[in-house]
Design brief:
It is a single chain. By secondary structure, the chain is an alpha/beta fold. The chain contains 15 helices and 9 strands. It has one domain: TIM Barrel (Alpha-Beta Barrel), CATH 3.20.20. It is 49% helix and 11% strand. It binds coproporphyrinogen I. Coproporphyrinogen I binds next to β3 and β4.
């Protein structure tokens, strides 16, 4: 059966522009909080295919989105490369022994050995695929190598990226060595996600905006494109969405073998359309905080629709939904996207 979301990713005409939300399975849903409490904590939830499947499907049933996104986290990758991941309540992810030198890079588990350790993710995908309606798509994902190494080097979220940048400007070869290792695992991981049943791949480069232009293309985009080339050679039919957050000023230099460009909320949709709309389907890009107001949500959807006019477009937020958004407002966003873009 055809899936409106997959059709839209491939640039085919669809009855309306499909919609999903980044971070749609998460803390704004009381049903999610209940399952997370049963699991004990977030990481247990990621490791439990039955529960991870349940929370993946919640936004389909409750909010009415056109695609489900696998419930997991980008940081399970470094965890399986041998860096022990913890989540400190209220503070987010933590690696107590971040990468400091070449010996730490050499000690990482790499390639197939790391990719097979993510078997609980593939099991989750198989369960979801068996339960998801045929007309809904399942999105699998990874972090971009650059975004992943920011956590591996800093040990946690950062505002300054100073340890990462120190490596870039003082030991660029070591940074490339680390990025290449992570890229290798990501390629194998995404192939296994596809083989387990995902329909679409999204690559999150959440911390793209931390880098200067030349450095961005050298230390991040290049590796994302390498992942796309690898996946497209094996599975040319599987659409790939690239989401580099906050690089609207570099749009002229975007290239690569992928299908959809995810536009973040700080980049005007009209600019993205002008620069990239002929080459890529565009996804996005409502400012997520508009979800606090139904009126401002509808206004934004109308504005985005007047630019895209229901063609080569997927509705989404310009970054993740926040935990204190009322569920009613998330439902409103989804139904308004579907209503306003209807042909
Ligand atoms: O308390 C909780 O329940 C944990 C909160 C949470 C959730 C729900 C985290 C911790 N991760 C997730 C799930 C998650 N993470 C998904 C699931 C599917 C969905 O979107 O519904 C996805 C796709 C991610 C991806 C992810 N994790 C990204 C990239 C996307 C983005 O939002 O930019 C990043 C940067 C992470 C790291 C991470 N994991 C969790 C947190 C709080 C963070 C961010 C920390 C920081 O700001 O540095």
């Amino acid at each position: 059966m055809s899936k409106i979301f997959v059709d839209a990713c491939l640039g085919k005409e669809t009855p309306y522009s499909p919609v999903w939300m980044m971070r749609q399975a998460g803390r704004y849903l009381p049903e999610y909080m209940k399952v997370r409490a049963e699991a004990g904590n977030f990481l247990n939830l990621c490791h439990d295919p039955k529960k991870a499947c349940e929370v993946t499907l919640q936004p389909i049933d409750i909010v009415g989105v056109d695609a489900a996104i696998l419930f997991s986290d980008i940081l399970v990758i470094p965890n399986e490369m041998g860096m022990k991941l913890e989540f400190v309540t209220g503070e987010g992810p933590l690696f107590r022994n971040p990468i400091k030198n070449e010996a730490d890079v050499d000690a990482l588990i790499c390639g197939e050995e790391a990719a097979v350790k993510l078997d609980y993710v593939y099991d989750t995908i198989k369960l979801i695929r068996a339960q998801l309606d045929d007309d809904k798509a399942l999105i699998g994902f990874t972090g971009a190598p650059w975004t992943l190494v920011t956590y591996m080097i800093e040990g946690k979220g950062t505002k300054t990226y100073n340890l990462c940048k120190k490596l870039i400007y003082t030991q660029p070869e070591l940074m490339h060595k680390l990025l290449a290792k992570v890229t290798e695992v990501v390629k194998l991981y995404m192939v296994k996600q596809i083989e387990a049943g995902i329909d679409v791949v999204q690559i999150f480069d959440s911390w793209a905006a931390a880098l200067e232009e030349e450095e961005y293309f050298e230390f991040s985009w290049k590796y994302m494109v390498e992942i796309c080339d690898y996946l497209k050679e094996k599975y040319p039919e599987t659409p790939i969405i690239m989401f580099p957050k906050g690089i609207g000023q570099y749009l002229d230099r975007i290239y690569g073998n992928f299908d959809v460009f995810g536009v973040d909320w700080s980049t005007p949709m009209s600019l993205a359309k002008e620069k990239l709309g002929d080459k890529y389907v565009l996804q996005g890009n409502m400012e997520p905080c508009r979800l606090y107001s139904q009126e401002k949500t509808t206004k934004s959807i109308e504005d985005i629709h007047s630019v895209m006019q229901g063609k080569r477009h997927i509705f989404n937020l310009g970054h993740g939904i926040l935990p204190d958004v009322p569920v009613e407002n998330a439902k409103h966003f989804v139904s308004e996207c579907q209503r306003i873009s209807k042909n």
